[in-house]
Write a structure and sequence with these properties.
CATH topology of the largest domain: Peroxidase, domain 1
Number of helices: 8
Strand order of the largest sheet: 2-1-3-4
Number of strands: 4
CATH class of the largest domain: Mainly Alpha
Shape: elongated
Structural class: alpha+beta
Largest sheet: 4 strands, mixed
Helix content: 55-70%
Order of helices and strands: HHHHHHEHEEEH
Radius of gyration: 20 Å
CATH architecture of the largest domain: Orthogonal Bundle
Oligomer: single chain
Number of domains: 2
Length: about 180
Amino acid sequence: MSELATLARPYAAAAFKRAKETQATDKWSHSLAFMAAAISDEKILALVGNPKVSKDRLYDFLLDLCQGQLDLESTNFLRLLVQNNRLVLLPHIARLFEAHKSEDEGCINVEVFTAFAFSEDAEKTFAEKLEKTLSKKVRMNVTVDKTLIGGVLVRAGDRVIDRSVRGQLQHMQKALH
């Protein structure tokens, strides 16, 4: 998984740089999300990995599939990924592109895993505390994960804040051994 993210990083950086140059970050964001969703389909993934399907046929098929959703630059980017056998990187490229975009906008995308659903007020208060801790505006994606037992686990880029009961128990177990 981390190898794919490493391979995707230069593509995402180049796409973001071009999007900034052309003042089209929203358009690129939409195009990359659409292509990533298309590539995530099992039937399309089977075509991508099929050695009997030529790169030109694959590219033409994907263009037909994405009809009306991509502009000229996005189609060129798609061609580049097809030619370099990097289509499977699209979900990672889209995710990294969004991280670049958020960073540029002074925001950070944060994954929050909680044992119990937040109330509206609690979520707002938690977001405010995270913004102070991270010194950035946060965009939270909250997921309920009962395996945490209690508390929260926060992933903000490379930073992980584990305030879950499960995490505390694991930490105590390591300390005892």
